[in-house]
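Predict the holo structure. Ligand: flavin-adenine dinucleotide.
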Amino acid sequence: MENKNFDVIITGGSYSGLSAGMSLGRSLRNVLIIDNGKPCNRQTPHSHNFVTHDGKTPSEIAQLAKKDVEKYNTVQFYNGTVVKTQKTTEGFEIETSSGEKFNAKRLILASGVKDIMPDIPGFAECWGISVIHCPYCHGYEVKNEVTGILSNGDMAYEFSKLIFNLTKNLTLFTNGKAALTEEQLEKLKQNKIILNEDEIESIQHKNGSIQKIIFKNGKEIPLQALYAKIPFEQNLNVSDDLGCELTEQGFIKVDMMQKTTVPGVFACGDNVTMMRSVANAVAQGNFAGAVVNKELSDEEF
Ligand SMILES: Cc1cc2nc3c(=O)[nH]c(=O)nc-3n(C[C@H](O)[C@H](O)[C@H](O)COP(=O)(O)OP(=O)(O)OC[C@H]3O[C@@H](n4cnc5c(N)ncnc54)[C@H](O)[C@@H]3O)c2cc1C
């Protein structure tokens, strides 16, 4: 790629990055979107809860989005992995795994997060297919089915309330001793949510469709769907490289304008919020692009 200098570099070219790219492309900004093709929802067969695209595959939605952004010829795309982001006197320098370096006046971090799979054989294979991260995305499709929740503590309790709205055939698997208060346990009991504290050995499945949970004590429980809250990490080490502050939960800290704690660096999408959805990522990207354009316009006027 000949041009190495851009108004804006966007790390991540999925829903939030493409959406930011559209705001900026339509504002005649020279933009580079760098992406390595690994969105977090890539294993899920159908994406839901995004109006106009409900039920399409995740890649279909992303491809349509990319086609829209490609219409704006000031936006360029680079297939590759960002390995380093750093501040320079004039802005920011981004380095890719093949050693290429690009510069920009502003940086938008749209690189999402990486979900960390628990050490349970079968779990990763079912992730996004029958092991579900979010009731709004996939709950309707498994309503009233024999369902489990793999979680513990306050999170498990809050999740139970939400999932109970979608199915009454519900078991909470805490995979070890339950860390819930007496009051919470009593509420679960009142609503006939079964508590199971047995330690999980593995998940038996067929092509990602869960069949049963197998426990270390030899017991087995058949299931049709399992909700799970799992840990994550940022895809880019922006706290060390750029000095962006993270929240207690590990999200990049942003203000109402999608600005991180480092001037000139913006962030949008899954890397800043627990409300993980395509619609939210698109909305935040759209706004981040507009705010960046406004900053540049103010500077240039
Ligand atoms: C299993 C699963 C199923 C889901 N189902 C739904 C659903 O049905 N409906 C819904 O609304 N939401 C769903 N979600 C949530 C939704 O997928 C996310 O909210 C959305 O993808 C966030 O968009 P994003 O652009 O912020 O991040 P992502 O879509 O995760 O994209 C991040 C992009 O950054 C790129 N990237 C990361 N690191 C680098 C790097 N170092 N260099 C270059 N590129 C990099 C990745 O390749 C990727 O393309 C689901 C999530 C999961 C995990």
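The chain has a mean pLDDT of 97. The chain has eight helices and 17 strands.
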